[in-house]
Fold this sequence. Notes:
Belongs to the aconitase/IPM isomerase family. Its cofactor is [4Fe-4S] cluster. Its EC number is 4.2.1.3. InterPro entries: Acnase/IPM_dHydase_lsu_aba_1/3, Acoase/IPM_deHydtase_lsu_aba, Aconitase/3IPM_dehydase_swvl, Aconitase/IPM_isomerase, Aconitase_4Fe-4S_BS, Aconitase_4Fe-4S_dom, Aconitase_put, AconitaseA/IPMdHydase_ssu_swvl. This protein has 21 helices and 27 strands. The two termini are about 40 Å apart. The protein has a seven-stranded mixed β-barrel, surrounded by four helices. Strands 7-6-3-4-5-20 form a six-stranded mixed beta sheet. It is an alpha/beta fold. The longest helix is centred in the first third of the chain and has 17 residues, at about 70-90. Iron/sulfur cluster binds near residues 297, 360 and 361. Iron/sulfur cluster (SF4) binds near residues 296, 360 and 378.
Amino acid sequence: MGFNIVEKILKEHLVVGEIKKGNEIGIRIDQTLTQDSTGTMAYLQFEALDVDKVKTKKSVAYIDHNMLQTGPENADDHKYIQTVAKKHGIYFSKPGNGICHQVHLERFGVPGQTLLGSDSHTPTGGGIGMLAIGAGGLDVAVAMGGGEYYIKYPQIVKVNLIGKLQPWVTAKDIILELLRCLSVKGGVNKVFEYVGEGVKTLSVPERATITNMGAELGATTSIFPSDEVTREFLKAQDREENFVELKADEDAQYDEAVEINLSELEPLIACPHSPDNVVKVSELKGVKVDQVTIGSCTNSSYVDMMKVSNILDGKTVNENVSLVIGPGSKQVLNMIAENGALSKMIAAGARIIESGCGPCIGMGQSPANNAVSLRTINRNFEGRCGTVSAGVYLVSPETAAISALTGYITDPREFIEAIEVEMPKKFLINDNLVVKPAENSEEIEVVRGPNIKPFPLAESLKDIVEGKILIKVEDNITTDHIMPSNAKLLPFRSNIPHLSNYCLAPCNPEFSKRAKKNNGGFILAGENYGQGSSREHAALVPLYLGVKAVFAKSFARIHMANLVNNGIIPLVFEDCNDYNDIDEFDEIVINDAISSVENGKIVIENKTKGKIYSMKLEVSQRQKNMIIKGGLINSIKNK
Ligand code: MIC
Ligand code: SF4
């Protein structure tokens, strides 16, 4: 029996465990990436591991999220990351060089290798044939130190692309279609492998748009083959030597299969406030638009920007629309500056911002109250743009640019004939914003700003765990709810005490006070708790507030791992109806916690209601031990 691409890479990187569905396996990590908003914490944790030099083939630290610099905090963190990187063998991508995923694809990604990143959109690397996975900062720190990364051996889904995209229909519409069909929970513990005749019609950046937003399916990752299109891309990036061919064997098997006929797709749009709330653009025709932002790690490649520039050429942005454009990397910005495309955008009235995450994570450009904001980003969770009352819609750059001109949501097919932009035969190569690690690390002093506060460490598990239900929340709570990020809070990513005042505030502003008053307690949640961002702060902050366990109908993958890594017990209801029975402030007790964690079956007692509920602990033996010892750092230290 032949193998698919995912199996081939996993087999080659297997270090611990046995290849069997549902088993936990440990894999070797070839490359890591961090960005600044999760990076400060990841490097503090890396330092706590006492490893001199990273053990990976390549590790890169990017600065792309916290770039507003409204006070000294961001710049202080940048200095910390730059110096800690230089000392420990990590490449440093300076602010201005671009968004981590875009730059990594251009300059560092290698087909067939594994990449672990402290950002949920790390699967962007799947566009170039990497097995690229998003994780919490601590897991990335351990991988930098040479430790294996653990995943549940995934279900592998074959996505068969047939046909060819019609004019004005884009890669973004392919992934929106998958989200429409499968939902934000549809990919949990799955890897999506793209096959079929449609694959060769998509460029590497288009493939990366798709694998990037595979994160919104909750998938472990997504991957494309590495073929002649990949070779051409690497050649144009002057790194053809990194090319290796990767394809599934003829008789490869998959656990599930989905088929998308590209020829039948239409321009799609995800409505507020979830990326799977997808309809056809034509159904929303005529909705008035206030803001359009084009950029982010999903859609900010050279070709995306060239298409937008061609659409805007000689025209003027509608008087009621604010159009914001952020090219994804210095390479892209420099190329469109040289060829005049940038000038056309400026002439049309676009507001050009520096290459970084910017509006995608609410770092500036928050829209007006009740505004309609059309964005090419990947997430439209409520309030993420910085304006709670605004409605964010997710679209392709083409739909975005055309709607910016008309002032209404517009199906791009109504526009003039389609615009073709060729992939460049040669990209502009200039890595002068990438700082190399030091040869002699003893000479490097790590600079720490006053905003860096120690991070909390869990304690080993007690035999009786008790407390109140501090909050009851519904399904699909995101890590943006648990630990909000915006221009005011993002500068404090290395200051857990400060962040703790805002934990779960979008659900209930009283949560933090309640937790502090009651000396911690429990969180009660619905399905898919912790979807979205990989931010470990969504576990570190509850840990700081004394949260001991989360009771949920189900968890998102990265957040569940982050909870365990920080000694918080993620428990799933045997019978989801029990959720309805429990209320805020109910007194809960877990007796015999240690032995219950060991055997994975836990009974919780609701003293207020006089009832008991059966819970499951759906984690590996390694993770059970970790919970008992008080998290990953404690269990490594114990070793
Ligand atoms: C995001 O898109 O939500 C972020 C900001 O990139 C996060 C990381 C973070 O919270 O810092 C992610 O996707 O993991
Ligand atoms: Fe940055 Fe947005 Fe991409 Fe996250 S999703 S890495 S905030 S551009």
